[in-house]
């Protein structure tokens, strides 16, 4: 190849674009998740293709003008429609070359990248970079015909992109959404921790809206394109182009309707549009709580409102600052409804600058409310625009995600498997899964497993607050992590101290094993099939709801094949097989799973429990007892231990066994159906009626009544569980007695019997086996009861 030919590749705009797109896409294919043809790769590629499509449209106009410069008479003989067709086809050919190169690179990457859903990836490529590229081409054609100098043409073509970007960013700032959908820049589906990202009707309607507007723009250009490829309004005759006029109106009218009613079509949301989904409100001193009628939140609104105000008081006392009021709290009855309206399904979010929190319904007391409200409080110490831990300096923009999430986790710590925040972090360190703090103090936070990153950041921030006070930590947050300014020492030095504190904490082997599975989960960027796995899980659930059990099982087998390292998938498959009456297949699936070498105690215990359930259903009680006993030797949290202990009691007594099986009903195909709650309540009553089993029946009956928010009704059976008659079997384990007291504490608080609740709380605090998580929860309950005495007397 001659030097002239090589130079041509660097000087010709079309060739430069092709080389850039090819090399850019090949670079993407070296990264996990982004390198496979799918949502992430299409998302990153979309703005690149859109920007180059502008230049493609401009150059199509310039090249055509140059080609006809020697014979302007020939162009004057063409109709405006023919001129536009010539321009569009020229630009389309160049755009197709860019799309073909990028698509080819993605397909070639299948040799070194795992692609679990090639058809789905092709659809994402079509709906994101291809669609946005076509829209960019239309904008480029308009920019090209409106001017002659290339720089001016590109600037004019960029106006729609800049306008849509500014509008989209403004909507994210002011509107109650965490997703962004843009004609040129693509579709950001929301928080990274929601693995299911389907192509929804919202995106299809938005693309229909985009192409209707683009069609109207092309029709208008066809009407006004003069011989010199310039817009020419004088001499335009609508009568001579009736079909073009009809096309203009056919695109413009429905396109305008879709644009005007953008919120109603789900392109974005406003507070007013959310009122359609959550029409009820409760106004308190600091909140406007939005919730759905006939929901669990509606039935529990007094306690929910009180918990909001309690969370406010605790955070205000700790931080010493309060955000502006009112804070709007949106409580959605289902994750699906929340995802449809704001773009986050299973992830609760709270943009600090907006003064909003978006929650899924949870049982009282809401576990995530305090954390999300802490994000709102962070606005009082963060930078003034977003209230986050970020700063701009000569070194560029710094966003400290570890401090953003560490702030909320530290001021609203939660127990997990009976352990407090520091014990969780200590176990993370013991398992050698703790992220280095320097690696998560920026955008690297997103590259780590969320559970590991949140735990490490939260524990470190809480340790800083406890050892050095609140004010230096708030200063650290406001400077986006300037440790030398805030503490007079480096992050590395502080990390050494924090690790020494963690390693001095005593840990039980069972606690380490109880959290091993929780921390084993890899970050989404290291799971190339994460989105396909979420899609398959959704398909399996849909088949289950439709009663298509064979289809459900086949889908779950596909799920197991694409992520064989995820033992939870095989547990789901075994459950589906058992619910379909295929007990032998379920036992074989569980036996295959049990042979894996790297199972955590949590998963191994679940396998033993499921095998015990199968034996219990066959009334093979000795075998069931063996499996339950083996499961109980594992390192487990209290909740899993309690369930196993009750099942073991059933396996040890032929009279109790069928009733315990009826209560848990592990093979019921529709465990969430309302009738199942009634049947569980009936099974608990039957257990209570058995000779000497009134305490166990009371325990289970109280649990069911609390599930439907009937605290006053749950008090009597729970007291019966804790104070049996002389001839009755008392709750035989510390875990069951502790569980009964925790339920009785909630029941008494719901009934506003605060003195009785305080007595139960005192018994929990006197428990010699109380672990750090229980002590943390008990301290929070002490404050809560004090608050409720005055707020809900």
UniProtKB/TrEMBL annotation:
<protein>
    <recommendedName>
        <fullName>Tetratricopeptide repeat protein</fullName>
    </recommendedName>
</protein>
<feature type="transmembrane region" description="Helical">
    <location>
        <begin position="121"/>
        <end position="142"/>
    </location>
</feature>
<feature type="transmembrane region" description="Helical">
    <location>
        <begin position="20"/>
        <end position="37"/>
    </location>
</feature>
<keyword id="KW-0472">Membrane</keyword>
<feature type="transmembrane region" description="Helical">
    <location>
        <begin position="208"/>
        <end position="229"/>
    </location>
</feature>
<keyword id="KW-1133">Transmembrane helix</keyword>
<feature type="transmembrane region" description="Helical">
    <location>
        <begin position="43"/>
        <end position="61"/>
    </location>
</feature>
<feature type="transmembrane region" description="Helical">
    <location>
        <begin position="154"/>
        <end position="173"/>
    </location>
</feature>
<feature type="transmembrane region" description="Helical">
    <location>
        <begin position="241"/>
        <end position="263"/>
    </location>
</feature>
<feature type="transmembrane region" description="Helical">
    <location>
        <begin position="87"/>
        <end position="109"/>
    </location>
</feature>
<keyword id="KW-0812">Transmembrane</keyword>
């Amino acid at each position: 190849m001659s030097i002239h030919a090589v130079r041509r590749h660097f000087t010709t705009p079309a060739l430069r674009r092709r080389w850039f797109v090819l090399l850019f896409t090949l670079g993407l294919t070296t990264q996990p998740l982004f390198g496979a043809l799918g949502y992430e790769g299409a998302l990153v590629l979309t703005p690149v293709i859109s920007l180059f499509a502008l230049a493609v449209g401009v150059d199509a106009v310039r090249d055509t003008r140059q080609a006809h410069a020697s014979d302007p008479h020939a162009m004057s003989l063409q109709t405006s429609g023919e001129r536009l067709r010539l321009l569009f086809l020229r630009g389309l050919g160049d755009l197709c070359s860019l799309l073909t190169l990028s698509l080819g690179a993605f397909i070639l990457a299948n040799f070194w990248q795992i692609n679990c859903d090639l058809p789905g990836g092709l659809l994402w490529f079509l709906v994101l970079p291809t669609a946005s590229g076509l829209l960019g081409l239309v904008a480029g054609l308009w920019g090209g015909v409106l001017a002659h100098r290339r720089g001016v043409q590109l600037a004019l073509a960029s106006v729609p992109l800049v306008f849509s970007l500014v509008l989209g960013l403004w909507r994210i700032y002011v509107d109650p959404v965490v997703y962004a959908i843009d004609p040129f820049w693509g579709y950001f589906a929301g928080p990274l921790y929601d693995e299911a990202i389907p192509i929804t009707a919202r995106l299809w309607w938005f693309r229909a809206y985009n192409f209707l507007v683009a069609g109207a723009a092309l029709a208008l250009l066809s009407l006004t394109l003069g011989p010199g490829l310039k817009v020419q309004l004088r001499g335009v005759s609508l009568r001579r182009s009736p079909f073009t006029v009809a096309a203009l109106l056919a695109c413009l009218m429905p396109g305008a309707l879709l644009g005007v009613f953008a919120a109603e079509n789900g392109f974005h949301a406003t507070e007013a549009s959310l009122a359609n989904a959550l029409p009820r409100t409760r106004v308190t001193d600091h909140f406007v709580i939005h919730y759905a009628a006939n929901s669990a939140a509606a039935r529990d609104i007094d306690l929910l409102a009180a918990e909001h105000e309690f969370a406010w008081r605790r955070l205000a006392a700790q931080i010493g600052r309060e955000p502006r009021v009112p804070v709007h709290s949106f409580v959605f009855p289902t994750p699906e409804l929340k995802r449809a309206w704001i773009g986050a399904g299973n992830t609760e979010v709270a943009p600090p600058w907006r003064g909003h929190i978006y929650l899924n319904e949870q049982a009282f007391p809401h576990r995530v409310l305090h954390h999300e409200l802490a994000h709102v409080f962070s606005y009082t110490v963060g930078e003034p625009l977003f209230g986050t831990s970020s700063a701009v300096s000569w070194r560029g923009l710094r966003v400290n995600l570890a401090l953003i999430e560490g702030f909320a986790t530290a001021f609203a710590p939660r127990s997990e498997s009976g352990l407090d925040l520091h014990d969780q972090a200590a176990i993370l360190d013991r398992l050698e899964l703790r992220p280095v703090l320097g690696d998560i103090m920026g955008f690297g936070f997103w590259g780590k497993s969320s559970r590991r990153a949140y735990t490490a950041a939260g524990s470190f921030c809480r340790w800083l607050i406890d050892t050095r006070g609140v004010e230096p930590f708030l200063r650290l947050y406001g400077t986006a992590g300037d440790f030398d300014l805030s503490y007079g020492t480096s992050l590395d030095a502080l990390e050494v101290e924090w690790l020494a504190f963690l390693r001095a904490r005593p840990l039980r082997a069972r606690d380490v094993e109880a959290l091993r599975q929780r921390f084993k989960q890899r970050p989404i960027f290291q799971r190339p099939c994460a989105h396909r796995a979420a899609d398959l899980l959704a398909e399996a659930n849909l088949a289950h709801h439709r009663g298509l059990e064979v289809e459900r099982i086949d889908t779950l087998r596909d799920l197991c094949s694409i992520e064989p390292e995820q033992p939870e998938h095989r547990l789901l498959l075994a459950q589906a097989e058992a619910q379909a009456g295929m007990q032998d297949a379920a036992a074989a699936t569980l036996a295959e799973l049990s042979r894996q070498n790297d199972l955590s105690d949590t998963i191994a215990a679940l396998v033993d429990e499921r095998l015990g359930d199968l034996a219990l259903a066959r009334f093979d009680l000795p075998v069931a007892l063996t499996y339950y006993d083996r499961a109980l030797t594992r390192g487990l949290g209290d909740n899993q231990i309690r369930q196993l202990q009750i099942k073991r009691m059933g396996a040890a007594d032929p009279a109790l066994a069928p009733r315990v099986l009826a209560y848990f009903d592990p093979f019921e195909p529709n465990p969430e159906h309302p009738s199942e709650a009634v049947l569980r309540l009936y099974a608990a009553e039957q257990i209570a009626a058995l000779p000497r089993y009134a305490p166990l029946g009371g325990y289970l009956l109280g649990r069911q009544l609390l599930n439907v928010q009937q605290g006053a009704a749950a008090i009597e059976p729970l007291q019966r569980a804790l104070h049996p008659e002389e001839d009755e079997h008392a709750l035989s384990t510390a875990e069951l007695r502790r569980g009964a007291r925790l339920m009785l504490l909630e029941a008494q608080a719901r009934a506003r019997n605060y003195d009785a609740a305080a007595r139960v709380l005192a018994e929990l605090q006197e428990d010699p086996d109380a672990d750090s998580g229980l002590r943390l929860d008990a301290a929070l309950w002490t404050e809560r009861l004090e608050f409720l005495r005055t707020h809900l007397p």
